[in-house]
Sigma-70 family RNA polymerase sigma factor
Amino acid sequence: MSVELLQRARAGDRDAFAGLVAPYRGELAVHCYRMLGSFQDAQDAVQETLLSAWLGLAGFEGRSSVRTWLHRIATNRCLNLLRSSARRPATAPPLPAPPPEPTHLGEVPWLQPYPDALLEGLPDEAPGPEVRYESREAISLAFVTAVQLLPPNQRAVLILRDVFGYRASETADLLGLTEDAVTSALRRARATMDAARSPGPPPPAAGGPEERALLDRFVAAFTDLDVDALVALMTDDAWVRMPPLPFEYRGREAVRQFFTAIRSHLRRIDHLVPVRANGQPAWGEYLRDPVTGGLHLAGIIVIDVAGDLICEITRFETTIAHHFGLPRTLD
């Protein structure tokens, strides 16, 4: 922490305050995203966190680092949002055909992807030694989805303890809880997360030949709407999700039934533009306009990979496509 920056910021220098918090903005955004599951809600929460920090700067006594102080404000801001149930309303456009019976109804309709480009430059070190989740797993869609099903306090405790590595005493101080309450919340949160985890072989190296070969096969099957080829690329317990639509399908047979039911009602996918989201392969999905002949963006597809197979396909709406550098139309 720069003492000079802090002194200037306390004197009302906005540029000094911007310099003081700049190293932590990206990390705060990811933290709020893990807490809230929505990229847009996380961006709003970061802005509110920084405003609160600016207004409360006189009360910062320097007993903790600026980073920890910001974590405290951001976490409690997210908890307030969660407890008020002031979630961004999810709009769910209808499917082109009646879907088959889902494996179960999705419980996280507000879920959005997180652009990998915004993950660059984040600090590698954690505040404490007790990290349990590797950085890749802690930003994955599977992790973020599972975290959304935890009660707010359990969610905050799990992220502070197992993702950031804060000690129990530090977490209790950040949240205004007792250490016993933190320990109890963490025990219940870990049990829920362990039950939700589906350990499998690690994915191939990003950008490596094994990943490229698998992704090429997926693109060919997906753009051709070849159900057999698509299902053949998936693990036995693979998931298909489509937030904010509430339908989720698990397992090859359920996935086959879903794609078969909607295949004849779908237009051909003319082009996929590769991007990355949540540390995972992703694409912008483009369809050709039958009138103008141009390509227009129809969705964002994110997959997760286990070994040499796909274990999850998630299709999102285009709400935050510009954050991925995806244009609305292509010639």
About this structure: The mean pLDDT is 91.
